[in-house]
Amino acid sequence: MTLRILSAVVLAAGLLGAGAANAQQQQQPQPQQAAPSPLDNVPDKMPFNTPYGAPISLEKAQAAIAAAIAEANKHSWPLNVAVVDSGGNLVGFARMDGAQLGSIAISEHKARAAAKYRRPTHAFEEAMQRGYNYIGTLDDIIASRGGIPLIEDGKLIGAIGCSGATGSQDEVVCTAGADTINK
């Protein structure tokens, strides 16, 4: 009889232990879902929505280029400087003596991207650095600073692009050129 009671106690203890273990498994937290991506954020207003205006004149393009070159000369940075109109078409270009040949096309590319997308190319560089690599799949993007839209009377009339130095140097020079228009 004692053996039966002892067997019953062991069996009951085993069942209670299994039930407690099963309850613990059921109470374990479920894996958390990933936080929403910043790309899922829907802004109220469209960013970089500056309307396109009439194309920049040759006179204004040349003034922007001259201001950019003056800034580059202050620092002894030989650069290429391009200005495009509101449609991304080349209006003016200057290659300083000693400027890197590979940067001729890059200066134009920076200007075109800034005009077409209505934002500084610095925005694309920042997006890539934050891991938004899809930016690289967009047509005519260049993820390097040194392209700045030219805004007159609240409308985009063109853009300036500078290349041949570091991105930050290119941007300093382009800002000097853009400041002749963006007041």
Explain this structure.
The chain is an alpha+beta fold and 183 residues long. It contains five helices and four strands, in the order ααββααββα. It starts with a helix and ends in a 5-residue tail after the last helix. It is elongated and about 110 Å long. The chain has a domain at 58-178: Haem-degrading domain (Beta-Lactamase, 2-Layer Sandwich). β3 (147-152) and β4 form a beta hairpin. The protein has a four-stranded antiparallel sheet. α2 crosses α5 (167-178). The model has no long low-confidence stretch (mean pLDDT 88).
In angstroms, what separates the terminal alpha carbons? 102 Å
Strand share of the residues? 5-15%
Q: Judging from the principal axes of the Cα atoms, what is the shape?
A: elongated
Radius of gyration: 31 Å
Strand order of the largest sheet: 2-1-4-3
- CATH architecture type of the domain at 58-178: 2-Layer Sandwich
Structural class: alpha+beta
CATH topology of the domain at 58-178: Beta-Lactamase
Q: Give the integer mean of the pLDDT values.
A: 88
Secondary structure tally, helices: 5
Uncertain runs are: none
